[in-house]
Write a structure and sequence with these properties.
Strand order of the largest sheet: 3-4-2-5-1-6-7-10
CATH architecture: 3-Layer(aba) Sandwich
CATH topology: Rossmann fold
CATH superfamily: P-loop containing nucleotide triphosphate hydrolases
Number of strands: 10
Number of domains: 1
Distance between the termini: 26 Å
Strand content: 5-15%
Number of helices: 11
Oligomer: single chain
Order of helices and strands: EHEHHHEEHHEHEHEEEHEHH
């Protein structure tokens, strides 16, 4: 083990990323899955971690009957959800339990979510306070999800991890951000998304600051979260494009988003050096693909592989959009 903020011993080489915004309705799960799927197409081995108790990602990519079975069995010795792994920590009966991911397709894997993860999240506030009291139990609880992911990454030679998180600034999302190497901010082209960036920036500042204090209190032989997520960029999405260009009202908010990202994220977190030198704050754009999104969720496939909706032109545009984002992620995380 290692202490004093150096992270988990033998941390796997996989780059850990979350598409995170505490505002709902910004397409986090859809973006996460489609980016991850395109990275796998480009030859990368990707692990999806459904860390949202709502299980939206799992419901997106797993057959309903299979997911129901996984949820029904998650408390059993043969359970295979994230809750199965974290349950011993929540019940103070041991450390995390290793589970095997589901192989969704070639090079794409999933650790299934579970509504019971909310029970673990309730314990995280106590773990956080115990870290300030220099208690080993607190640090062990904070790092448990990270250690699970680390073991799976090592055993499956993973290149990228994507956490799918819920729309809140709760304790579970706090440890996810602190475990990630990078974060991406999704945003809709509206006033609420612009305003949400200020709260997001303050939350990230608080989380990183507190963790830097806590790692100084940690026992020397404890594994710790890195606590240094870097900003990969923001993703405006679901805006409409016509022959004359982007709808005027949405175009206005695209400009406001750029300014708010710079002021409320990059400037607010400047002392933590989150910006990637030379990188544009905007990672890419995902326009409104209409019925393709709903059909993608129904069929459980990426937007660009939908069979029952949209046109070939729309699917090609979606494929190109996510390919460009995936290629940029590969370049910026080297």
């Amino acid at each position: 083990m290692s202490g004093n903020g150096s992270g988990i011993t033998n941390r796997a080489r996989a780059k850990r990323i979350t598409v995170f915004n505490h505002k709902g309705g910004v397409g986090k799960t859809t973006l996460t899955y489609n980016i991850a799927a395109q990275l796998s197409v480009l030859g990368k081995r990707v692990l999806l971690v459904d860390s949202d108790p709502q299980c939206n990602l799992s419901a997106y990519v797993i057959d309903g009957e299979v997911l129901d079975y996984l949820l029904d069995e998650s408390d059993s010795p043969t359970g295979q959800t994230v809750w199965t792994s974290l349950k011993p920590l929540s019940e103070a009966s041991g450390t995390f339990k290793l589970i095997d991911p589901i192989e969704l397709s070639s090079r794409l894997f999933l650790l299934p979510g579970d509504i019971r993860v909310s029970d673990f999240e309730e314990e995280l506030n106590d773990f956080w306070r115990e870290c300030f009291q220099r208690k080993r139990k607190g640090f062990a609880g904070i790092v448990a999800l990270s250690e699970l992911v680390n073991e799976v990454c090592s055993s499956h030679d993973i290149d990228f991890v994507f956490y799918d998180s819920g729309p809140n600034i709760g304790p579970l999302n706090r440890i996810i951000l602190l475990d990630c190497d990078f974060f991406i901010i999704p945003a809709a082209c509206d006033l609420f998304s612009v305003r949400a960036l200020k709260t997001l920036g303050r939350s990230l500042y608080s989380w990183i600051s507190q963790w830097r204090t806590m790692i100084e209190l940690a026992p020397a032989d404890m594994d710790l979260l890195p606590g240094h997520p870097r900003f990969l960029g923001y993703l405006p999405q679901s805006f409409s494009v016509y022959r004359g260009g982007i709808v005027r009202n949405q175009a206005k908010y695209l400009s406001l988003l750029e300014n708010s990202v710079r002021a409320d994220i990059l400037v607010a977190l400047r002392e933590f050096d989150v910006a990637i030198p030379g990188a544009s704050p905007k990672l890419g754009e995902v326009k409104d693909f209409g019925t393709l999104v709903a059909a993608s969720q129904t069929e459980g496939v990426p937007i660009y592989e939908v069979r029952t909706a949209g046109t070939a032109e729309q699917r090609a545009a979606a494929r190109e959009a996510f390919k460009e984002i995936a290629e940029k992620i590969i370049r910026q995380t080297r």
